[in-house]
Structure formats: structure tokens, C-alpha cells
Amino acid sequence: MRLRLPERLSFVDLILWGLRVAIVVFVLVGSYATLSQGVLGFDGWRTLLIVGVAQGSIYALIALGYTLVYGVLFMINFAHGEVFMAGVFTAFFAATALADSGILNGNPLFGLAIIFAVSMVTSMVVAVILERVAYRPLRRAPRLVPLITAIGASLFLQYTFRSLYGSGVRSYPTIEILTGTFDIAGVPIQKTQVVVIVSAILLMVGLYFFVQRTRTGRAMRAVSEDKDVAAMMGINVDRVISTTFAIGGLLAGAAGILYVFLFNSVSFSMGFLPGIKAFTAAVLGGIGNIVGAMLGGLFLGVLESIGPFLFLDGLGVPSTNQLRDVVAFTLLVLVLIFRPYGILGRKE
Amino acid sequence: MTATEPRVEQPAAPQGHLLELENVNAYYGNIRALRGVSLYVDKGEVVTLIGSNGAGKSTTLRTISGVLKPRTGQVRLDGLRIDALPAHEIVKLGVAQAPEGRRIFSRMSVYENLLMGAFSRRGEKLDDDIARVFDLFPRLLERRTQQAGTMSGGEQQMLAMGRALMARPSILLLDEPSMGLSPILTEQIFDIITEINGQGTTVLLVEQNALMALNVAHRGYVLQTGKIILTDTAANLAANEQVRQAYLGEI
After folding, report:
1. Mean of the pLDDT values across residues B164-181?
2. Phi then psi for B102, rounded to 5 degrees?
3. Residue of B nearest to A218 (CA)
4. What integer pLDDT is reported at residue B13 of this predicted model?
5. Of A225, A226, A235, which is closest to B119 when you measure between CB atoms?
6. Do A90 and A121 touch, CB atoms closer than 8 A?
7. Phi/psi class of residue B201: alpha, beta or left (left: φ > 0; alpha: ψ in -120 to 50)?
């Protein structure tokens, strides 16, 4: 194939090409510098990778909520981070009660099942009410309107839960069954990380089959392609949209519990950052694309975990692990500039 | 669905029409798209609605299907008012549409599109219906697992019609089935319309290709700027001077 340059490079094109080259050079030089110093051995990189995959699978679960909703409504539900917070924050009280009564560590599977159920159901209910109250009346409004409403709803939910549960940061009780490590092929891995990754994979596989193989899943895909024609086929479009929010909520509720397995603490504002990160992941994978959201989440998690150290440490930047958010959002900006429809998204 | 769901098998009153529109007015925002449209279709007929671009033909079908709500007037099916029902209830009563521009689900397979067509018939066996569609459109059988959006225009039209038939409609609404098709394909599609009608399905056909439409129809209506200006048997319309000049391309 012959490389053909456009006949006239505009000023903007030049800047964009310069940016591309600069990024590649920066990443290569940084990585080379870090690797050649050999600060981190194979085990170290592997640990970072596992941390990234665990974190990324949580992003992926939340990102699915963004992408599912975008698929049927073409709007970004910016209150989805708060849907995530609502479940896990509420389940905190169930968890403490279970821990205090000794059930959590006496019968851990039962206890965990209850915690998951409380979190998932709460998130689901919040998501469904959110759609019904805040978005459905705006179904035919210009696209900017529900976007602004979503931001309003996000703040509304944050401060509602702050009034309900207080503004402090709370720690989940220790779940003894999840402390310590598993030996997998001679490699010790934190039990929590294993549980997070395995649960997330199970949920994603379940969702994929649900969307591809069930009647409701087909209805969701039909609604996402053409609402009028979907209605002509006998699909109750409003109900399908509610179901979509419900599924997004269930996944976010589960992601919340997995999140506390890793980070342990909850607060009313805990939904903001994971929410924005998951949104980044959804855009990265191609918003509206389910597999894209899964891949985007994992990619973002791994990049965030490995990237700062790999790219920056060799260049002499101190405490690179504090720069994970910088890496994540730089990635968002770059995706928006160079591939706004994402890895798997369709060009519109 | 629930037990209270109204079902199709309600015998029509002896003189009742299968489908009847009475003085229907419909709007897009402030633009009046249908002005007092009244028409009827009897069981077993092929009725065509002809008229130029923007005359309100598709709007009429959208109103019957319930995607657009009439501001005033009535739509009745077997004597039962359906104009206030949501679109997804209307298809359950036996009105299916193959809409303008086909609008098949392009990211689904051909087979999945057919399943979507039968969405209103929850829990029923579909094997016979699928066999019937493949019998009418053998091309669809060859493309069973293909992604629908990758097919040619003619194949997509076949799929749109097959999808509508999967609802086992008592009346099938066809919106411009010949649009964008070659003359040979157009002829095929019209043959199939006759065949479907011969199998007992009533058809309301919207067409710009008035000649072909009047050929297969029993009766016709002529729409102009949202109003019905003429109705007669298909043969009389095809012979009508005014129609010949305006819609059959004779000057």
C-alpha cells in the first residue's frame, strides 16, 4: 500500500500529526527508560497487571450501564456513578448488621449473598426511578436537555444520600473469607482480586448471553436500532428502556460490592470518580457497544495501573502511582481527538 | 402477556369493515399532514393508496399502526377503536406493517428479524410461519444467518415483508414496497403481494408506482396534500383521465 499524504495539510492536521508523533515518542522513550533501569522485576509487573485487571473489571461493569443506556436512548446517564454509590452505600448497613450479629463470618456465603442482593436491588431501584422521573418526560426533548438533567440528578442523588447516611467515609467490616491469598499456579494472588475478576467475568458473560439470546435481549437490540419499528413489532418500548436501566443498575450494584472488596470504604461522593472512569472506558470501547465497554474497562484499568510507572518512572518523575488519574483522562482526551467512536464503535 | 388481553377472534359485524378510518386528522407539530381522511378496507381485499410524494400516504399508515396519534377522528379495526392504543398493542390485534424504507433491524440476522416480527405472539410456535416466509422468499432462507444490513435492497424488502407476515396479521400494511427496486424485482414483489392476498391476508398498499399498484389492487384511493380526492375500483382509477395524467405518467 502506498502512503498517500493529503494534498494539503491543514494547520490543524499538522498539529494532530505532531501530537500523534509526540505521544508515541514519549511512550517509547519513557517505557525504554523505565525498563532499562529494571527497577521492577517480572513479579512486580505481574502484580501491577493483576491490580489493573481487577480494577478494570469493575470499570467494565459500570461502563456497561453507560453503554446500555446510550444504546437505547442516545444519552449519557451522568448519574450512573451515583447509582453505583447508592447500592454499595446502602449495603454497608446490611454488612455492618451482618458482621455485628456474627453471620458475615459465621456463614460468609449467605452473608455475601445478602450484601450483594441489597446493593444490586438498591442500585436497580434507583436507576429505574431515575429514568422514570428524570429522563422519560424528556424523551422527545433536544439532546442537551437530558444531559443537563443527568448532571442535576447526579448531584441530587449525592446530596440525598449524604443527608440519609451522613458525610463521613465508612469502612466495610472485614470479611475473613476474603483475606489472604490464593496460590494460582504457584503465584500468590489476593483473594479479593480473584473474586473481583471472576465475578465480573461471570456477570459480563451472563449479560452477553442475555442480550444475544433472550427475548428481552433481542427487544433491547431492536429498540436500540429503531424505536418506532420496535413498537410496530409489538415491543413495549418504555418497558424495555426501564429494563435497560434496571440491568445497568444491577451491574453497578454488583460493581459497588466488588469495589469495596478492593478499597474497603464508602462515602456519598464515592461514585464520582469511578463513574467518570467508567464513562471513559465506555467511550474508549465505543459507546453503545457492549463488548467495547468490557474491553474499554479492562484496558483502562490495566493502563492506569501499569502506565504511570512504565511511562514516567524512567523519566525521573516521582511517585508515579499518584498520576493514574492523569493517565486515565489523558487517554480520554486522546480517544476523543483521534477516535471519538472508540475501539469497536461505528463511525456515524 | 396478561389474561385480559383483547384477542383477534372477534367476528366482525356483518356490514362492518375490517379496517376503517373516519375523518382522521393528523399533525406533525403544527403541520397538518392528514385532512379528514376516511377510508375502509374489507376482509380479503387489496386496497391501494396512491399519490405523489408528501401526499400523506405514509402518514396514513403510521396513524393506523399507532406510531402517530390522530388529533381527531377514529381508526377502527373490526369495529373496535384502536386510535388511542399504543403501537405495540395494535400489532397484537392483527395490524402489521412493512414500513417505508424497509427499516429492517440491520445489525440482526435475517432469522432474528423474523423472530422480531413475531414478537407480539409470545409463546406460540413459529416453525410454520418461518417455513411460510422462506417459502414465499427463498432468498431469505439462503441468507438466514446473514446480518440483515448487508443484504441488497430487494432482499431487505423481502425481509421487511416477511417480518411483517410473522405477526400473522389480519391486515398487512405495505409502504412503498417497490421503492428503489429494479423493474424485475418490483414485478416479483407485486406477484408476491397477490400471492399473500390469495392466502387470505388483507393488504393495504401504499405506492408511488401507481400503475403496478392498481394492477394488483381491487380498489384504490388517491391522496393529495393530506386529503382523499378520489376513490374507485382499481380498474376505473386506472382508466380515469385525471389519474392517468397525474400519476401514471401520461401527459
Report:
1. 93
2. 70, -55
3. B116
4. 47
5. A235
6. no
7. beta
Query: Where are chain A's structural domains?
Result: 51-338
Helices and strands (H and E) in chain B: how many: 10, 10
What is the Cα–Cα distance from A178 to A193, expressed in whole angstroms? Answer: 9
What does the DSSP assignment read for B65-78? HTSS--SEEEEEET
| Residues on chain A touching B2 (C-beta within 8 angstroms) | none
Asked if the C-beta of A225 comes within 8 angstroms of chain B's C-beta atoms, the answer is: yes
Tally Cβ neighbours within 10 Å of residue A138: 17
DSSP B5: -
pLDDT at residue A92 is higher than 90:
yes
CA–CA dist B89, B167 (Å, integer)? 12
pLDDT confidence of residue A221: 95
**Mean pLDDT, range A336-347, rounded to an integer:** 80
Lowest mean pLDDT among A3-17, A303-317, B26-40, B185-199: A3-17
Asked if B22 contacts B74 with a C-beta cutoff of 8 angstroms, the reply is yes
- Cell numbers of B156, please? 431487505
Domains belonging to chain B, first-starting first, are 19-94+169-247 (3.40.50.300), 106-168 (no CATH)
Q: Which of B59, B62, B88 to mutate to test the interface with A (most CBs of A within 10 A)?
A: B88
Whole-number Cα distances in Å, A324 to A273, B4, B248: 12, 57, 70
Burial of B126 per CB tally in 10 Å (0-12, 13-18, 19+): middle
Does the distance separating the beta carbons of A236 and B67 come in below 8 Å? Answer: no
Burial of B147 (0-12, 13-18, 19+ CB in 10 A): middle
State the count of interchain CB pairs (< 8 A) between A and B: 63
Sheet-wide strand order for B95-98: B95-98, B171-175, B202-207, B46-50, B219-224, B227-233
Half-sphere CA count of A251, side-chain side, radius 13 A:
36
Across the interface, whether the CB atoms of B106 and A229 are under 8 A apart is answered no
At the second CATH level, the architecture of A51-338 is Orthogonal Bundle (1.10)
- Pick from A140, A229, A232, A242 the residue to mutate for testing the B interface (most B CBs within 10 Å): A232
Q: How does pLDDT run across B25-46, given as a tens digit for each residue?
A: 999 988 999 999 999 999 999 9
Contacts of B199 (CB under 8 A, 6+ apart): none
Residue tagged 447526579 (cell numbers) = A154
Please tell me whether residue A42 adopts helix, strand or coil conformation.
helix
